[in-house]
Design a protein that fits this description.
Layout: H1 2-16, H2 21-42, H3 45-52, H4 61-96, H5 102-106, H6 109-130, H7 143-170, H8 173-195, E1 209-212, E2 217-222, H9 224-234, E3 238-240, E4 247-248, E5 253-257, H10 263-271, E6 273-275, H11 286-299, H12 307-324, E7 330-334, E8 340-345, H13 349-364, H14 368-382, H15 391-410, H16 414-423
Parallel strand pairs: 3-8
Antiparallel strand pairs: 1-5, 2-4, 2-6, 3-5, 7-8
């Protein structure tokens, strides 16, 4: 039961990133609230308030109809305008920055909630309008429900003003990079803290049984809690072979296990490996490196030509790499007895640094300011004392040499070349 609950939570978190998740929930709540008020109206809540607190009741049928009709038309207009703004935001972010930032913008909870408030209020107004009797007297008119519609419409107007402010802030590249950075920073810190002072060696898996994928798609996340429950119950140890974010084809090796599994247990294990097309930094911090790098590269393109954004992106990358230095290349998960039961392979620091630097060197090596910033980043990492593995320093030194070599081939000004030589500590 626990493992199914854990998987359910994972799937809910995936659904939460969809733009229709919160609007659908809030729309359902608006519909249920309208039905609840219809029930209270049938019990005479409006007639009671009309006698004891008439200020809380709208007691004119034509006024109530006019208000609700106006609210419905106005809410439809606001919703169309708001959805148009969201589409413009996504289009500009894709064109100016990177298509990879779209999942993070779509999963913005505040915008989803605002759109949900619009839709739920619209449904409430429609059902309240339908409940008005054509020839009803003052006791049959849902006067209190109409007053609540006025309150909800006022809330929608406030939400619309906030939505305009939020959408104008969200499209700014600094805010986009800041959101990406903060999300990745939290994820990396969580992974580093989870590793703690764990010095347990994971057993050699070369002779373990290999399990092949029964599915194809992008491997995005692992239900670790479910695997821990299965491992404790069945007394097995596992190694996850692919790296998060890679595309897994059917019949390719996906994990290793220290003993043979029956079909039911194998299906439970494979169900804990989650495939998804969405790219969320909450699941895979490497996406943050890629997204910030793509923003920097796009900023240096002739069509945009924004070196300032590229410099800011390198600052964010510097801090993220400094955090990545503190993490091991592979994560080992232990059970309650501190015994290693699960090994999760991650992208090597050397490969990650090479991929990021290769893109930046290719598109930014002609700009001496950007080259100086890259040397500053690599020198800062090279001098860091907080390295989880000694091989990290060798990887940084190699990238310093690569950057220096590219800079010498591209930059021709003697003063700029002298500045480059000063910045390279490896010569």
């Amino acid at each position: 039961m626990k493992k199914y609950f854990s998987n359910t939570i994972k799937y809910i978190l995936i659904l939460e990133s969809k733009i229709a998740f919160y609007p659908s929930l809030l729309s359902l709540s608006g519909l249920l609230f309208a039905l609840l008020m219809y029930y209270f109206e049938s019990k005479g809540i409006s007639s009671y308030l009309l006698e004891h607190a008439p200020v809380f009741v709208v007691n004119d049928t034509e006024t109530a109809r006019s208000l609700l009709t106006t609210f419905i038309a106005g809410l439809i207009s606001i919703m169309v305008f708001s959805f148009s703004l969201v589409m413009i935001l996504l289009n500009q972010a894709s064109s100016n920055f990177s298509p990879r930032v779209l999942p993070g913008l779509i999963s913005n909870r505040r915008h989803q909630i605002i759109l949900g408030i619009y839709n739920s209020t619209l449904l409430y107004c429609i059902f309240t309008l339908v409940s008005i009797e054509p020839d009803g007297n003052k006791y049959q008119l849902p006067g209190f429900s109409v007053l609540l519609a006025i309150v909800l419409m006022t809330l929608c107007l406030g939400a619309f003003i906030y939505f305009i402010h939020s959408i104008s802030q969200e499209i700014q590249v600094n805010n986009i990079m800041d959101r990406i950075f903060n999300t990745a920073k939290m994820r990396l810190k969580h992974l580093i803290d989870s590793e703690g002072n764990n010095t347990n060696e994971f057993p050699d898996t070369s002779n373990w049984e290999t399990i092949y994928s029964n599915n194809s798609g992008y491997f995005q996340d692992i239900s670790i809690e479910t695997l821990k429950i299965i491992s404790d119950r069945e007394h097995i140890k596992l190694e996850i072979l692919p790296i998060k974010g890679t595309y897994i084809l059917k019949k390719l090796p996906i994990l290793k296990v220290d003993k043979e599994l029956d079909d039911d247990l194998l299906n439970d294990v494979l169900a804990s490996l989650l495939f998804s097309k969405s790219e969320l930094i909450e699941d895979n911090y490497v996406l943050a490196f890629k997204q910030i790098t793509e923003i920097a590269v796009k900023a240096m393109s002739p069509g945009i030509n924004d070196p300032g954004t590229a410099l800011n992106a390198i600052d964010y990358l510097t801090e993220l790499f400094a955090l990545r230095l503190q993490k091991n290349d592979s994560s080992i998960v232990c059970n309650t007895n501190a015994s290693p039961i699960l090994k999760i392979n991650a992208v090597d620091f050397k490969d990650l640094l090479f991929q990021i630097m290769a893109a930046l060197r290719t598109y930014c090596k002609h700009d001496i300011i950007i080259v100086q910033k890259l040397f500053f980043m690599l020198n800062y990492l090279y001098k860091s004392d907080a390295m989880a593995e000694e091989t990290y320093k060798d990887a940084i030194e190699q990238e310093l040499k690569n950057l220096y070599e590219d800079a010498l081939e591209t930059i021709k000004n003697s003063a700029d070349l002298e500045a480059v030589k000063i910045l390279n500590p490896t010569i």
